[in-house]
Amino acid sequence: MSANFHVPRSAVPDLISDASRPDEPVPVREAATVMLLRDTPGGVEVFLQRRVAAMKFAAGMTVFPGGGVDERDADASIAWAGPPAAQWAEWFGCDERLARALVCAAVRETFEESGVLLAGRGSDTTVDDTSGYADARAALVARELSLAAFLADTGLTLRGDLLRPWANWVTPEQETRRYDTKFFVAALPAGQDADGETTEASESGWRTPADAMADGEAGRSMLMPPTWAMLSDLAACRDVAEVLATDRTPVPKVMPTLRVDGESVLVEL
């Protein structure tokens, strides 16, 4: 989505008041999020989660799996298949170390929050049953285990080639918690399914982008502007193949300005 757009007022969180804004912009933390996709007779579906109300950021929001980058995600020892870090760095306009960390964070967070693992025993296979890695998943969530150690212990290769770069949004400067988030898309690997077994979500499930946006319009869920924009992009695609074939590179960095405009919020890009 490259133009300004409106989001229903009921679908977005309350905007921060002038009195609550920090005197200086707070530091931005790097983050990665993945839009997991699957084809159905009703069209493309994307996996979404509603964050629990106790979360410090985006509490109660409906989001894609994702989270902050861990310093260990940049470990160069990780067995890797797909575009090299230099290529991801070019696509996202960052250095190679950060690019590697972002791709690894995308894979790690997706596994932690949905149980979907974008890895395989070699560069041309994917895991078709992740249930045997439940203990490792819990250890990753607890930060007792790094992604590099997990993959090395299991003999798995990270399948970066299953990811595609899609967007890069930065939290506006008036917010008290800010993220520079890279959005990726990936097809659900054959034999796997996404679950809601994470303490960070109160509910999870597959929805068509149009249905998810309708829930936001009706006030049944809350969607941050980037999520709304991503859903709008996906709603325009016929199937997962079309999404994956869409070239969004180089990925521009977007920091929106939000302004209440009657019964909606104008997102200015």
Mean pLDDT: 91
| CATH architecture tag | Alpha-Beta Complex
The largest pleated sheet is described as:
8 strands, mixed
So how many helices? 7
Using the coordinates shown, work out and report the CATH topology: Nucleoside Triphosphate Pyrophosphohydrolase
Detailed description of the structure:
This protein has a single domain, classed as Nucleoside Triphosphate Pyrophosphohydrolase (Alpha-Beta Complex), CATH 3.90.79.10. Helices cover 26% and strands 28% of the residues. It is built from seven helices and 14 strands. A hairpin with a 7-residue loop joins strand 9 and strand 10. The relative contact order is 0.24.
Could you provide a short overview of the structure?
Keywords: Hydrolase, Magnesium, Manganese, Metal-binding. The protein has helices spanning 85-92, 96-114, 134-141, 147-154, 209-217, 225-235, 240-245; strands at 5-8, 28-40, 43-51, 62-63, 66-68, 80-81, 119-120, 157-159, 163-170, 178-187, 201-207, 253-254, 257-261, 264-268.
